[in-house]
Every structure is written in C-alpha cells, then in structure tokens.
C-alpha cells in the first residue's frame, strides 16, 4: 500500500513581502507563519511524515520549538534557488517509494483547513494523475500594458487559480520536475509531461501570503477558526 507524505517548500526569502526576516518566519497569530500549515498537515492521520525544505544556511528554524510535532516533522536543509528546485531537492532527500503520494504545500499558505486537506486527499488518491486545490476565477480578468492601462478583457470561462497542496505520486513528480525546472507550481511540471491533473475545489481562504497587507487577512481567518 502506498503511503501519503507532505513536503513544505520553505526556502524562499519573501522578496515581495519586503521584510528582512523570510516571510515564513514572520509572526502570524502568535506563531511563525509556517507553523500554521505544519499544524494542519501534521494533524492529518492520512499523512505519515511532513518534510520541510529549508535553505541550506537557514538560521531561524532552530530558534523555535517544534517539539509539538515530534518525529512526524522532518526538516531538510536542502532548498534551492527556485521553488521547483527546493521541491526537487527535498524529494530526492526524502527517499520515498516511487508510488508513494506526496502533498506539496507552500509554507506561505497558513490558512489551509483540515477540511480542504481531507477533501484533496479523498479525491486525488483515487485519481490516476493526482490533483490540486484550486478556485474558479470569480473576478473579471483584464490584460494590462506597461502603463497599467487595460488592453483587453480576458475570457475567464474555465479559468482557475491554482493553490496548494498539490498531490502527485513521488515518481511522477520527480520525473516532471527534472524535465521542467522553471515551473512555478508542481502541476505545471506534470502538465508539461502531457498529464491533466484534477482541479479540486477549494476556497479563497487558502490564499498565499505574499504582500504585507496579506498578513492582516490571514490573522483574521486564523482567529475566526479558533
Ligand atoms: N520557496 C522555496 N524555495 C525557493 C523559493 C520559494 O522553498 N527558492 C517556497 C517559499 O518559501 C514558499 C513557497 O515556495 O513557501 C511559495 O513561494 P513564494 O510565495 O513565491 O515565496 P517566496 O519565493 O519566498 O516569495 P517571493 O516570491 O515574494 O520572493
Ligand atoms: Mg517566489
């Protein structure tokens, strides 16, 4: 029986956040941001181990107490120059079986709920390719020129925003990321091999904390959950 693992890339520097501390360590509802996603992943009885991919010279990880998560949480100091490289390095270091499932989840999505995670696992584990959490685009889409003037309105029919976790078999993801190293999410690499991952409906609450103004919204959502 193949097992399910999680891998959290957390080797970025958060340049759009503009803080000196990498954004995954910024205080959010009383904890470093990454803590919240780890709590949700580690709480899932479907998930065997949660690997965290950190920068090779990460100076912050050991400054926090992770003992709550016990052996279920495994840090790997092998992050790369891009998200895709961090995921690939982590996959190779984790030494999983090729048919094990892997959930890749951004450290910067602290508001992932237990329900969203369980739904993704339930749908994807029976899928031949795998699946990702995503939301259908609700707003009207505009194409802009260099002066921020509207060039045209894009058709949003059938357009979805990709989130994480993204769940694939380890072997497929290894092959995909090795042949498409410049992707911004895992599904893109799998798509480049000609596969069509399943879109599993999520909600806007599982957004990625990217800019300073996102912190307040994430804190509100987390406070509301308690
Ligand atoms: N990530 C990573 N290794 C990198 C770049 C990003 O592990 N070389 C991780 C981030 O830590 C984050 C996730 O990938 O958890 C999603 O990336 P993003 O939100 O873009 O974070 P950053 O790259 O850190 O932010 P920015 O793009 O603003 O610099
Ligand atoms: Mg980035």
Automatic annotation (TrEMBL):
<dbReference type="InterPro" id="IPR050088">
    <property type="entry name" value="IspD/TarI_cytidylyltransf_bact"/>
</dbReference>
<keyword id="KW-0808">Transferase</keyword>
<dbReference type="GO" id="GO:0050518">
    <property type="term" value="F:2-C-methyl-D-erythritol 4-phosphate cytidylyltransferase activity"/>
</dbReference>
<dbReference type="InterPro" id="IPR001228">
    <property type="entry name" value="IspD"/>
</dbReference>
<dbReference type="InterPro" id="IPR029044">
    <property type="entry name" value="Nucleotide-diphossugar_trans"/>
</dbReference>
<dbReference type="Pfam" id="PF01128">
    <property type="entry name" value="IspD"/>
</dbReference>
<comment type="function">
    <text>Catalyzes the formation of 4-diphosphocytidyl-2-C-methyl-D-erythritol from CTP and 2-C-methyl-D-erythritol 4-phosphate (MEP).</text>
</comment>
<comment type="similarity">
    <text>Belongs to the IspD/TarI cytidylyltransferase family. IspD subfamily.</text>
</comment>
<feature type="site" description="Positions MEP for the nucleophilic attack">
    <location>
        <position position="208"/>
    </location>
</feature>
<protein>
    <recommendedName>
        <fullName>2-C-methyl-D-erythritol 4-phosphate cytidylyltransferase</fullName>
        <ecNumber>2.7.7.60</ecNumber>
    </recommendedName>
</protein>
<feature type="site" description="Transition state stabilizer">
    <location>
        <position position="16"/>
    </location>
</feature>
<keyword id="KW-0414">Isoprene biosynthesis</keyword>
<feature type="site" description="Positions MEP for the nucleophilic attack">
    <location>
        <position position="156"/>
    </location>
</feature>
<feature type="site" description="Transition state stabilizer">
    <location>
        <position position="23"/>
    </location>
</feature>
<keyword id="KW-0548">Nucleotidyltransferase</keyword>
<comment type="pathway">
    <text>Isoprenoid biosynthesis; isopentenyl diphosphate biosynthesis via DXP pathway; isopentenyl diphosphate from 1-deoxy-D-xylulose 5-phosphate: step 2/6.</text>
</comment>
<dbReference type="InterPro" id="IPR034683">
    <property type="entry name" value="IspD/TarI"/>
</dbReference>
